[in-house]
Design brief:
The chain is an all-alpha fold. It contains one helix and no strands. The protein is rod-shaped and about 110 Å long.
Length: 92
């Protein structure tokens, strides 16, 4: 029984090895355009994702710059208020 399974396995393996090149050659004209289309779609998706990521990065950079400016302005205004209070109390 064990030898029968071995013989069947070897026969199937040889059959696949002999038939595979014929099947690949027959399917190549069909598979190549599909593969090209899939690759093209992948490249386009990658490019779109890269562009979107760049736009998001620019937006985040803009928001960070605005927040830093607001913090600087508020810190500067607070420092001026402290300076004004110090000047008023010195004059009194």
């Amino acid at each position: 029984m064990r030898n029968d399974d071995l013989i069947k396995g070897v026969a199937i393996g040889l059959g696949v090895v002999l038939v595979a090149p014929v099947v690949i050659a027959a399917l190549a004209p069909v598979v190549k355009p599909i593969a090209r289309s899939a690759l093209k779609a992948g490249v386009m998706a990658y490019e779109k994702g890269r562009e979107t990521l760049e736009e998001i990065s620019e937006t985040v950079d803009d928001v960070v710059a605005e927040v830093e400016e607001e913090l600087f302005d508020s810190h500067h205004a607070a420092a001026e208020a402290v300076d004004d209070e110090s000047a008023d109390s010195a004059n009194s």
